[in-house]
Amino acid sequence: MRESFLKIFVFPxxxxxxxxxxxxDFESPSEFEMPTWYVDIQLPLLQERYDLEGMVDSVQIxxxxxxxxxxxxxxTLPSTSIxxxxxxxxxxxxxxxxxxxxxxxxxxVVVDTVINVSIxxxxxxxxxxxxxxxxxxxxxxxxxxxxxWNNIVAAFDTTLPAQQIDLPEIDENELPAFITEVSGVMxxxxxxxxxxYFFSSITNNGxxxxxxxxxxxxxxxxxxSPDTLANHEKSTVTKDEVFARTTKIGGQQLKESIRMLFDxxxxxxxNNEDILTISAGDSVQVNFQIRIRIAGVDTAVVEIAEYNMPxxxxxxxxxxxxxxxxxxxxxxxxxxxxEIAISNLYSSYPxxxxxxxxxxxxxxxxSGGDSVKVDTALFKDYATYSETFLIDGYTFSNPAGADSxxxxxxxxxxxxxxxxxxxxxxxxxxxxxxxxxxxxxxLHFGSLEAxxxxxxxxxxxxxxxxxxxxxxxxFTAVQFEFDMVNQID
Length: 489
Prior knowledge:
Blueprint: H1 2-21, E1 61-63, E2 69-71, E3 88-97, E4 102-103, E5 111-120, E6 125-127, E7 133-135, E8 142-145, H2 146-155, E9 163-166, E10 179-187, E11 197-205, E12 211-220, E13 227-237, E14 242-248, E15 253-254, E16 257-266, E17 275-278, E18 285-294, E19 297-304, E20 307-308, E21 322-329, E22 339-347, E23 353-359, E24 362-363, E25 373-378, E26 385-390, E27 395-396, E28 411-417, E29 420-425, E30 430-432, E31 434-452
């Protein structure tokens, strides 16, 4: 219509206007100027309103008070059946817990101490029975009164001070949190006789009477209640006799220090009137030697408090399309279905650990059955634990109540160290670790209450009554309303 109007109105008007407005002066060629053309074109303003009333059918398309329209689509979705696999939950969980190793502390203890002592019992010279002064040891035999000797013995103090060797301590920063006290360290025992030992020797070197009540003791620990590592005793050591003894101390426990006690006595002569002979060359003294050798320590004795080891096990989750309220598991299944498999449960720690893992969702049937629970003790010398729990016929429940759905299994796990005395290495090596694998492949239910996300088949709707040439429209607001009737047999 617009095109026909333009043809009728514009072209005659343009011709008339051209005839009336175009002119040129050719009388004086010398004054010729190029003509200037002026063309005016006038177009009428057009406006057209299309009414949507003709599209309204009062069935699917309705007018609205604001001169707009409302489209209503209605259709029936095709029936969707519940497949048996809706009762099958493909968990596919393979949890591998490798743990975090704990390292042992480092400590080096090496001791090699030798003590040599000579105790002369006479002054540099003595007076014999003839009143002559002679040196000790004498060049020839000399005689003295027993009273003189007894006076020397009575005046001599044979009490000797104890010798102490302090031992290095373990750095507390190297100790794990569950160790509350280090009671001591163990001397390494490599089976060699000259590796770690306590040696003592005493010689009665020309004494005129016996050396008595000889004692050499090696102690460790507090002075109030020390532990004895070696004790060498002899009641009598006669003239020119040597009393020597060696005690191997490998495998013994050392505490904060080592103390050595040594003492002896010298008997008096029973009759002061007797004459005693000092033989030529006699030194008239007591000689003793002590040696302590510790080649090293290899373990520490520690006190462990009751302690829950940190064990962050990844959850056993269901697929993202399902949340389970409750259910009863199928009773006839095959391998890999309705099985909770525990394997590789092992602790390499050198102390006892109580391990409890309780799957709280699984309730045995009324006919009987074991709870799905691991309750065992772990120790480095124990065999690796493995067990598979079959839950056919069990009930799945939520310990928190039936009103909430679960997206994962509820598992209570405790790895608790007992209060105990234990031995740990002192070489900085790995002290221990704990491992466990948990596998849950598929869960098949006989009945199930759950939130399950499933897609329905698409439904295509056509809009009837659209006018010819009408290609589309823009929706200012869209509202959806679904009335669904669902039944599961």
